[in-house]
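To: structure desk
From: M.T.
Subject: fold request, one chain
Message: Could you run this one when you get a chance? Sequence is below, nothing fancy, just the single chain.
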Amino acid sequence: MLATSLVFGSFMTVLFFIVGIMTGWVAREYMMNYQEFPKFHPEMYDANGNIIPDEILAVRFENDYDYEDNDEED
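Reply: Done. Structure tokens follow.
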């Protein structure tokens, strides 16, 4: 009984390993050949549709909605 389960377990392990390799290979080929390249944002194009060669600066402002006065020293 133990030998039978070890044989079937070994075969199942090898089978899942091979199926995993094949699935990974197919997914990699799909991603490399059929996925579109990411598109740039419209702000990165000039009036003629060409990509702007200048550096673009992104600034993020975060609002501070904490109106409580936390001056503990007063």
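Reply (cont.): The chain has a mean pLDDT of 85. Let me know if you need anything else for the meeting.
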